[in-house]
């Protein structure tokens, strides 16, 4: 089934069930008002939502309306936990190579993961508001999953059972703020301002056989100002699957229902089908030419991120947003 | 005024107004059901809560009940943002000195801050559940503030206006998991499992003149197994005040109402009144004796954290909790 959160003048928005082709939607206040409410009681609520989804697919509902991704908020507009892995270690290896740094051997067995700003999730068509271009604005195209309650100490195999929904996301990064933050060793903070969600999130069964081993085996297409930057396959070179990432996150504590776990920038070894962020493009240029030639994003740049099934149909709808300058108000 | 969240079989608990002496409380469902709901509309709701607080203080309410800190959940049992600073740079300097590492000069001007697990806040009397003692269990006694909505790019002076509530907290740390996480440069994750809140949170005016320059000028008392470990003054040697910490957190994005901003381990230069965590005690031993003699916490250890006003009365109630072993269930 496919679900979305649409604007309704509340901070948490309104949960809707969306048709497979993303044309129709229906509100379900009798089942759950918000995505978080659904996730809080997923075992009880998801069968009811699935029933509505079937009716929507079969055109037996009268209270539907046209789904418009411009009305979409993030799936969970404010969430309680957002942990982003860096599961495509080949990408990390490339970034290190560009600055002549060794990749520690443990990076292949111990996931990198940082805590992100779960109160800063934005909708698929919302502007990316940034104060300064010189902060080095970049997109990062990723896959993410949303969990129900995860017990502390869960193993990677059982962690897979807690994956309830799948999304694609844009983890906006401010590259020129990263070196200082990394040097402080306390992780990313100012350098990771906003994370954008796809218009809809889907249950893993919507991915058919593209969902296996807790990975999504499809290309993730990133398009900057109408030029495709990359379409690496998210199922290839993902060193840690989502079960392993969840188990890592839950090693020393439980995770609350509605936790969002990200894959990190999707990347394939050697980048044969391009990249999912400009930082990787620039690293490839540094390795080849000694210096980068592709700039980071400018104000008014447009980034589109999408994933299609084998029939060429959109799965999550399209992230399609523009970078806009933000003036601080004091 | 003083507020608390008490258990009611929901994930978010029930907002209550608590008397200044922490003996009586009253539910306020006609004003707000939860702490988050109050913070979402603080300007409208806080005057109504203040009125109830006055009535509670004047004994003109009939629907009060005895306040019991054992019924307290964290102020916001699941929050959208938890950012912990390390504002007492003298502590960071000491920790570095113990391992013969230089303190970068920028640490005195650019705050250290990490993103914590806002879905893992626990109540003042709840057990600290940890799987393994060898992870190096430690408490960290801190002051924290809770904000309303903070605009991106706010300056430090204006940021102070967004401080709505003050708390004391225990930022539980797993010291032996920290070196590996610091080496990975992605920040703390597994090493910061739970954060405990004081039984009540208070508006800054409850601190009288102990609240000035966005700091709390009172000793924070940490007691481990009935032995006082330290009572440093939280107003001394706080290099960055809460306005500066909020401004740092909001540099590149807005913060959602209900954001929790922590001070980091309270510490005074030279530790004349002891320490707010065992890591600091051990660092002092390393500097003096070449090696630490105080062990980290063991299962069944009891940690109490409290702050009293100049009359010796408790302000926030007492964090009083025990470390318990947790067996993962798969």
From TrEMBL, chains A, B:
InterPro entries xref list: FAA_hydro_N, Fumarylacetoacetase-like_C, Fumarylacetoacetase_C_sf
Gene3D superfamilies per record: Fumarylacetoacetase-like, C-terminal domain
Span of domain Fumarylacetoacetase N-terminal: 1-78
GO MF, one annotated term: catalytic activity
Coiled coil: none
Stretches assigned to the Fumarylacetoacetase-like C-terminal domain: 81-314
Domain of life, per lineage: Bacteria
PANTHER family per record: BLL6422 PROTEIN, FUMARYLACETOACETATE HYDROLASE
Name of the protein this chain belongs to: 2-keto-4-pentenoate hydratase
